[in-house]
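task queued by scheduler; priority normal; single chain, no ligands, no partner chains; default sampling; output format set to C-alpha cells
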Amino acid sequence: MSVHIRRQRATRQVAARRRLVVSLGSVLALVAALFGAVPAGSTPAAATPLVQGSVAQYGVATQLNVPVTMADGTVLRADVRTPAAAGTTTPAAGSFPVLLTQTPYGRGSVEAELSWFTQRGYITVSADVRGTGTSAGSWSPWAPIEGQDGAALANWAAALPHADGKVGLYGGSYAGINQIMTAAAVGPNSPIKAIFPLVAGNDLYRELVTMGGIPDSQFMSFWLTYTGISHMTAPLAEALREGSTQNILDTLTLEIQHLGGVAQSNLPILTGLLGGGAQAYDGTFWQQRRPADMLASVVANGVPAFLVGGWYDLFQRGALMNYAGLQNAWAGRPVGAPMTADQPVTDRYQLLMGPWYHDPRQDPTLDLPALHLRWYDKWLKGIDTGITGAANPNPLHVKELGTNRWLDTRAYPFTGADPTRLYLDKGRTGSAPASANDGGLSTTAPTANGSEWISWTANNSPCTRSTAQWLGGFIKDPACTDSNTARETGTGSLVYTTAPMTETKVLAGPIGATLYAQSNTPETHWVVTVTDVAPDGSSVPLSSGALAGSHRAIDPAKSWYAPDGSMLMPYHPSTQATTSSVPTNQVVRYDVEVFPTFASIAPGHRIRVNVTTADTPHLSATLTQTPGLLAGIWQLKSGPANPSSVTIPLAPASAFGTACTSVCP
C-alpha cells in the first residue's frame, strides 16, 4: 500500500496550510483503519438496545489538548469528552466511569468512536503515547514506560471532574496491547476495573516481527516507515491546523524529541531486523515487550478482560494464547502451559474469535460497540447485561470456518480435538496433478524411505491469503485469499494430501509440523501451509507457519506436545546464543509452528500440507541469512528412518455442540 502526498512549493497562504493538514489527516486515518480499531472515516453503528443505557442520552462536552505530566516530567496530551446535558455542551450532573485509550496514531483518530460511548454515559479520554502526536518525549514501540504512563493516566482520569473513580481501557491493535501493559502495571485495587483488548498480541517477536526467525518484512517495513514519518509530521500538522506562528515555533522542541525516537527506535529496529542484527533475535528488546509475561499481573491486579481476535488476524496466535494465559493465571497454573480439559475457568476472561482480519468491524453482523458497552456496563456500572454469569458458562466463543456455526467452549487447546499425526509420504495421489510431487498424507506411517527434492526460491506467488493477512486485510482479493493453488506448483513447493474425509471433521487448534531434511546449504527456510481441498480441487488456505533452519533449537519446557509425544506447538528460543548454522549434507529435524485454526472439513474434502521455501511478500531473509540460502537444493525425507509428519488436532463435528448465543453475532 502506498499513500502519495502532493508536495507543493512552500507558501504562507492559509489555503496551502489547510491542504497539507488534510493530506496528513488522510494518511493518519488510513493507517488508523489498518492498525487501529475502526475503518477510516467511519463511526460505530447504532447499537441495538441490549442493556440499560445503550441508547444515546447525552451530548458531548469536549476538552482538547489537555496536558498530563508523567512521573519523569514528560507531558502527554489528551482529549477529554464528558457527557453533557442533552442538546448542550455543558457537563451533565452526576458522576460517570471513564474509558481511556492510548494510541500512537493520533488521538483524534478515535474521536467518533469515543464520542459514541460518551453519549451513553462515559467520560472518554484519548491520549497520544509519548513521542507521538503532540505528546512530548521519544517513541519506542510498546516501551515498558508506556505501561507506567498508562497507570498514571488512569489515576489522573479517575480523578477528573464528574468521574466516579472507575476506569475501563479501550482500543485495538497497538492500543489493545497497551491495555495489557497498563493493566499489568497498575497494581491491585487500582481505578482500572475492566479492559477490552481488541486484536492484541501475545508475543510480538513470534507473531508480528518474525515468523520462526524469518523477518516479517511486509508489515514491519511499512509500519516502521509510516510511524517514523507520522510522528515527525504530527506536531507540525497540529500547529498548521491551529494557524499560530507561535505554536509552529513551539513544535520545534517536539519535532526534535520525536526525531530522537526515529533515530533510536524506528531505524535501528528496521535495519537490525532486516540486516540480521540484534533486533532479528528474541533478545532483551522484544522480551521487555512481551504481553505473555504480563498476563499474570493483569489477573493478580483483579482486572477482567474481554478479548476479540480473528482467524486471519496478525495476532491469530496471540488472541488464543492470551485467553489461555489469563485463564491459567486465574486457576493458579503456569501462564504459558496448555490448558487442561478439567481445569476451572472464569467468565472474567473471555475471547470472541471470528473469521476476521485485523479489523473485525469489516463484518457487518458484528456490533462491537454494543459488545463493548455490555462489558463496561457490567464491570464499571454494575449492570447485569448477561455477558457473565449463568447465561455464559463457556467463555471461549469461536466461529467455525467452513460453516455458519458460532460455538462456545472452555479450554485451549480445544477439548475434544485429538492431536492426530499425519505422515508425509512420497508418491502421487492424483489430487494435485500440477504439483511437482503430489505426495500423500496419512495416519499410517510409510513403510519405505523416500526423498522429495525442493529448491530454495527467494520469491513465490503473492496471490495467497498470507499477503492479505500481513497487511491487516486492508487489501485483499478473494481469488487469492480463498485459494492456495498458486503456491502449490514449481520446484520450490511440495504438497501432501489426505484421502477424502468420510465424515465431517473439525480441525481445531495449534498445528505442529516436523520435517526431516538434508540440505547443501548452511541455512534453510521452511513455510508450511495447511489447506482444505474440495472435491473440485480448490485448495482453501487455513493457516501457515514458518521456520528458519538456524532457529531450529527447541525449548522443551515451553513447547506443547501431543499425548504420543509428537510436537503440537514448538517453541524456539530464537536468541543469538541458541541459533546455529544448519549442518550440510546431514539429515536435520525442523519443528515448524503452524498457527491455530478452527475449521470444518466436510465429507469428500481433504487436508493438504503445502511445504514451500518462501512466503512472498510476508517473509524475507535477513542479509545474514541470505548467503546461506543461495543455490539451496534440499531433500525432504519421509519414511521409517525420518518420519516427517504434521500433528493436527481433529474432532468429530459433535465435539463442539454448544451454540454461542450470549455474545456472538
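post-processing summary
- The first strand starts at residue 59 and ends at 69.
- Confidence is low (pLDDT under 50) at residues 1-53.
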